[in-house]
Amino acid sequence: MISDERWAELLETRATDPAAIAAAYAARRRRPLLAPDGATFIVAADHPARRALGIGDDPFAMADRRSLLDRLVTALADTGVDGVLATPDVLDELALLGALDERVAIGSLNRGGLAGSVWELDDQDTAHDVAAIVDHGLDGGKMLLRIDPRDPGSKATLETCARNVSALARAGVTAMLEPLPYTTRDGKAVLDTSDDELVRCVAVASGLGATSAHTWLKLPATDAVDRVMAATTLPALILGGAPGPDPDTAFDSWRRAMAVPNVRGLVVGRSLLYPPDGDVAAAVATAADIVHPTR
Predict the structure, then answer these.
(1) Can you give the pTM of this predicted structure?
(2) How far apart are CA 263 and CA 1, in angstroms?
(3) Is 4-291 in CATH node 3.20.20.70?
(4) Strand locations in the chain, DSSP E?
(5) Confidence check: pLDDT of 187 > 90
(6) Rounded-to-integer distance, Cα 92 and Cα 235, Å
(7) What is the domain partition of the chain in residue ranges?
(8) How far is it, in rounded angstroms, from Cα 282 to Cα 284?
(9) Contact 99, 70 (CB under 8 A)
(10) What confidence tier does 2 reach under pLDDT thresholds 50, 70, 90?
């Protein structure tokens, strides 16, 4: 929990000492992406910057920043959580709170494809850029790669992701791509749940950039996860997706995915930070046990 005193200190620092953010990053104690058991568990919190604030029936669940940070601090306090993926504002705040020490910190680049916008699949870099990721000593950069062959916006997103993959690789930093097939229905971008299309997206993502040496994938745990992962040799982390009414179903799908050889862990956000029963620590602990069963 973030105490009232610590919260007031954070707000005061925000207003009076902007240089404190760079100092916090410089002082951060870093660690490898993978834990000693060869797996990693990352908590994600980059949804708000894409205009996606809703959880279930509450369209503004993630709009309360203190609540979001409180949940993240709770999650990161679990020793089975290896790190966090977020936009600059959230990572800056976690750095100021001292919550990034001995944790992996991954920046989020393209948040410009705002949810519900007519340009949603033309996903511009509006958050981190490669230079900031390197300058702040972050451990990776994540990109959302939504592909709809019928939407011209996907072309610009492909080109942007390819440039970022190349630039991150030159810096020796992990590039995390989240390739997802999309279609347009009633003028809105909608996830295509076809395994065939997901396999095609994985094939495209694997070939982006001048080298794949530092590329990781972030993929859903479909019923055909073995087939999806067989389309690449790249390491992958399983994403959590939108929270559902039955968390056990998600946990079971993650357990099945973790049995695939090139699946190395989880990147989960809303499902764990906003569980149906409100017990963040318990939800996070269950996921951590899936990734690190011998911890």
Answers:
(1) 0.96
(2) 32
(3) yes
(4) 40-45, 83-86, 104-108, 140-147, 174-185, 188-191, 215-219, 236-239, 263-268
(5) no
(6) 28
(7) 4-291
(8) 5
(9) no
(10) very high
